[in-house]
């Protein structure tokens, strides 16, 4: 797989990135269909085919990379739309039902995080076996705290997407 990734990296960065992660199977399938004519090719077979690729095939590989990247972006947008809809329905439910449970749980998470952090940073050190449990609890509470803040104040995923888009634009503008 690393041979294939090294070959693809210079021409098709999105596919190369996918080859190094959880989408490796999808990337190999796309490359296999294009360069071997079958979806059942191995990464070694695709690497061998790419090592003797013609200029026209390299151009096609760039097009595949563009299409693959666009599909990933479209999937990410759809996933974010689903997540935003889920958050909106949860907020609408809370407003309609006027349930105290979400607010109470949020208060417990914030208070628990503050308590655990205070215990760790205060001069009173718990026994070492308790300290490990406290660290684990702090990690879990930090994760829950991020969810509480995203629920009540919105998520920063849109901001991350805008930052990423600006970085990609700047990188392309720098190459021109």
Overview of this protein structure:
The structure is a single chain. With 176 residues, this protein is mainly α. Helix content is 82%, strand content 0%. The chain has two domains: 72 residues, no CATH class; 76 residues, no CATH class. α1 runs antiparallel to α2, α2 packs across α3 and α3 packs across α4. The longest helix is centred in the middle third of the chain and has 43 residues.
List keywords for this structure.
mainly alpha
Gist?
The chain is mainly alpha-helical and 176 residues long. Helices cover 82% and strands 0% of the residues.
Question: Which residues form runs of ≥5 with pLDDT under 50?
Answer: none
| Tally of domains | 2
Q: What is the succession of H and E elements?
A: HHHHHHHH
Overall 3D geometry?
elongated
Number of helical segments with 4 or more residues: 8
Q: Return the structural class.
A: mainly alpha
Q: In percent terms, what proportion of residues is strand? A: under 5%
Q: Termini distance?
A: 32 Å
* Major β-sheet annotation: none
Number of strands: 0
């Amino acid at each position: 797989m690393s041979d294939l990734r090294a070959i693809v990296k210079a021409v098709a960065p999105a596919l190369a990135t996918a080859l190094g992660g959880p989408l490796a199977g999808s990337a190999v399938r796309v490359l296999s269909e294009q360069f071997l004519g079958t979806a059942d090719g191995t990464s070694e077979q695709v690497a061998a085919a790419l090592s003797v690729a013609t200029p026209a095939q390299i151009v096609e590989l760039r097009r595949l990379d563009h299409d693959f990247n666009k599909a990933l972006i479209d999937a990410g947008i759809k996933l974010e739309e689903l997540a935003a809809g889920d958050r909106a329905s949860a907020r609408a439910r809370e407003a309609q039902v006027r349930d105290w449970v979400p607010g109470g749980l949020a208060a417990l998470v914030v208070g628990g995080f503050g308590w655990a952090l205070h215990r760790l940073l205060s001069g009173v050190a718990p026994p070492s076996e308790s300290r490990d449990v406290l660290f684990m609890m702090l990690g879990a509470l930090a994760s829950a705290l991020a969810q509480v803040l995203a629920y009540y104040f919105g998520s920063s995923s849109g901001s991350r997407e805008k930052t990423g888009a600006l970085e990609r634009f700047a990188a392309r503008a720098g190459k021109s």
